[in-house]
């Protein structure tokens, strides 16, 4: 029996994609599932440094299988970094093959992209092409504040244009002191994109212990993703989670 595959993309780099991926992994592992996280291309990290998968291991625990296909130290799009290094790029076909192999002995495989949906893996393909090859749904991680409505709507529209399923949207780093735009976007994101908002994690979630992170993931992600978030969370509760380091203040 083959496990489920979920592709995780962002509207841009730095929106909390790795923390959301770790939260998904932590919840699934706590529920008894065998979980694998695949990072097709890691850029901007030197050889030997932990990278995004190191953050996943620290937050979700060592029981989560981690696989990285390629790494380049320059902080560039994967295709550009590969071309500058003289190394072969990671192709969408290679990403799909690696994900399918992991799905053979895991219940859930999370494929975390680099940057946004249409960032080039090689000169001809993107994470969207890998998702299409897999027939896998895509979860969009986005920012909280001003500008996120346009960026998120564009990403969801790109998925629809390619006839790819969108699992929903998660805010990856909700600020501890949210401004008016961040508070309004809790309601506006699902209205503008036409897909559900499936959670919001505080901006300092990545500094928690594994136990605290798991509790936060349960409160910050919706039932569809293994948590209990009901979509009616207000900004004051999200801010109190961020300040206290655990749900409920």
Main attributes of the structure:
249 residues; alpha/beta; Rossmann fold; seven-stranded parallel sheet; 41% helix
Q: How would you portray this structure in words?
A:
This protein has 249 residues and is of the alpha/beta class. It has nine helices and seven strands. It has one domain: P-loop containing nucleotide triphosphate hydrolases (Rossmann fold, 3-Layer(aba) Sandwich). It has helices at residues 17-30, 51-60, 78-85, 92-103, 127-134, 148-161, 180-193, 210-220, 235-244, and strands spanning 4-10, 35-43, 65-72, 108-116, 138-142, 166-174, 197-202. α2 (51-60) links the parallel β2 and β3 (65-72). The longest helix is centred in the N-terminal third of the chain and has 14 residues, at 17-30. It is globular and about 45 Å long. The N and C termini lie far apart (42 Å). Residues 241-249 have low confidence and may be disordered.
